[in-house]
Write a structure and sequence with these properties.
about 100 residues, mainly alpha, Death Domain, Fas, about 55% helix, about 0% strand
């Protein structure tokens, strides 16, 4: 099974350039009550860097945050695909220490 990092990277690769800019813009503000990622860190971040920043800042909540932002840009098709990936650690989702299931 793919790790959250791999799934997120694949999801961000499916965004067009303007969609990716909107995605990062939303990450600068609060999402689901989590503080934003500083603009200075996101400004030149590519898709891989963005995934790493999200995992650093949102940890086990990264999939939930990603789904919320995808709804806002709107890319409901990608949000729907991510809904199949467990995002709750109690449901067998992201394991904090290893990044695996």
């Amino acid at each position: 099974m793919e790790t959250p990092r791999e799934v997120l990277f694949k999801t961000l690769k499916d965004l067009g350039e303007n969609e990716f800019k909107k995605f990062k813009w939303h990450l600068e503000g609060k999402v689901l009550g989590f503080p934003g990622i500083p603009k200075s860190e996101l400004e030149k971040a590519d898709r891989g860097d963005t995934v790493d920043l999200m995992l650093r800042d949102y940890d086990i909540n990264t999939i939930k945050v990603t789904r919320e932002v995808l709804k806002k840009i709107p890319r409901n098709d990608l949000e729907e695909e991510l809904s199949e990936f467990p995002s709750d650690p109690e449901d067998g989702g992201y394991c904090r220490d290893t990044g695996t299931h």
